[in-house]
UniProtKB/TrEMBL annotation:
Record's keyword terms, sorted: Transferase
PROSITE patterns cross-referenced by the UniProt entry: COA_CT_NTER
SUPFAM superfamilies membership: ClpP/crotonase
InterPro entries on file: AcCoA_carboxyl_beta, ClpP/crotonase-like_dom_sf, COA_CT_N, Malonate_beta
Source lineage: Bacteria, Pseudomonadati, Pseudomonadota, Betaproteobacteria, Burkholderiales
NCBIfam families: malonate_beta (TIGR03133), PRK07189.1 (NF005530)
Keyword Cell cycle: no
One GO biological process term: malonyl-CoA biosynthetic process
Domain CoA carboxyltransferase N-terminal stretches: 1-254
UniProt organism field: Caballeronia grimmiae
Protein name in UniProt: Malonate decarboxylase subunit beta
Domain of life: Bacteria
A molecular-function term among this protein's GO annotations: carboxy-lyase activity
Length: 283
């Protein structure tokens, strides 16, 4: 990318969740469901003296992508770290369920999920976990009919139960700024010690869980610049490619085989992980 292209490109990461959804949908087709004016907020945060947000940090946008029906589900990383509570999870799960129902009725609705989330909202505990489980089930249902594409683009990344949701998607797109992992750096350090994972060592963290490394290890499908047009183009390409022969979550034997090659007695390195995972994951 030359200097002029760098100046002209629009950062996807710098857009909020609503603007990201608008950018992905075909121009003029954006319609938001349960928008902020509906005032559907978390009933639990206010009881804990926590300021609520009128969309509970989840944007549900319906329209078309490449001329075909689509729903874009955006998670607002600026509200409670993009964490999932009862309402935000229900908005996402319910939208995916309706998209699957569309397909059963002959309407080929596909879905894009914008992951900017640390996982479950601790203040809502089991309610958030149950909501995330509903999201998992809805992704698996919808991906039988149409590709479900996940995107993680910003510095919050995608962690916790929502990283499992990302792993269930048909395809994943990531940028250099983003990370993807089950447990966050601070959690790993707390449980295993600083010698295992130093949560203050940003280069080390990105070398293991950054999307560039995740691309090398086959855990995401497209690694792209933080460019809104490039990300939209990647989404369209993946939708045109259709459903993959096997999603990552269906390649259990392949993943178990690769995990068995890891020497847990020695400190892992990004290079070793890339070498082992780079061999592929046959079903």
């Amino acid at each position: 990318m030359d200097a002029q292209q760098l100046l002209e490109r629009q950062s996807f990461t710098e857009l909020d969740a609503r603007s990201r959804a608008k950018k992905l949908l075909d121009e003029g087709t954006f319609t938001e469901l349960l928008d902020p004016f509906e005032r559907v907020t978390s009933p639990w945060l206010a009881r804990q003296n926590i300021v609520t947000q009128s969309d509970d940090g989840a944007v549900v946008a319906k329209g078309t992508i490449d001329g075909q029906p689509a729903v874009v589900l955006g998670i607002d990383g600026g509200f409670q770290g993009g964490s999932m509570g009862e309402v935000s999870a229900a908005k996402i799960a319910g939208s995916l369920e309706l998209a699957a129902e569309d397909n059963r009725n002959g309407i080929p609705t596909r879905a894009v999920i914008l992951f900017e989330t640390g996982g479950v909202r601790l203040q809502e505990a089991n309610l958030g976990l149950a909501g995330i489980a509903d999201i998992h089930a809805a992704i698996v249902d919808l991906r039988r009919y149409q590709p479900v594409i996940g995107i993680t683009a910003g510095p919050i990344g995608c962690y916790g139960g929502m990283s499992i949701a990302a792993g269930l998607c048909s395809y994943l797109i990531g940028t250099r700024e983003a990370r993807l992992g089950l447990n966050g750096p601070a959690v790993i350090e707390q449980e295993a010690g600083i010698a295992e994972f130093d949560s203050r060592d940003r280069p080390m963290i990105w070398s293991f869980t950054g999307c560039e490394q995740r691309y090398r290890t086959g855990l995401i499908d497209v690694f792209t610049a933080d460019d809104a047009d490039a990300i939209r183009a990647a989404v369209i390409d993946l939708l045109r490619a259709g459903r993959p022969e096997a999603c990552r979550s269906e390649r259990v034997a392949g993943f178990l085989k690769r995990l068995s090659e890891i020497d847990t007695s020695a400190q892992a390195t990004p290079q070793q992980a890339a070498a082992i995972y780079g061999k592929g994951f046959e079903s």
